Amino acid sequence: MFKLPPQGLKLDDVERSLIVETLEACNWVQKDAAEMLGISKRVMNYKVKQLGLANARWLKNK
Known about the structure:
Elements: H1 11-25, H2 30-37, H3 41-51, H4 56-60
């Protein structure tokens, strides 16, 4: 179980860390990461853009 530190946490920081860790575990495949997190591909794409995340693999495909 997760234990909240006494100084607290910012939800944005936790969300960013969780998304990045999941993307790394899924080799930066957003569809797979979305499935692991139980969110839609559309929400994952929105979060990636909102958080300003990028991966070299994505840039090669553009």
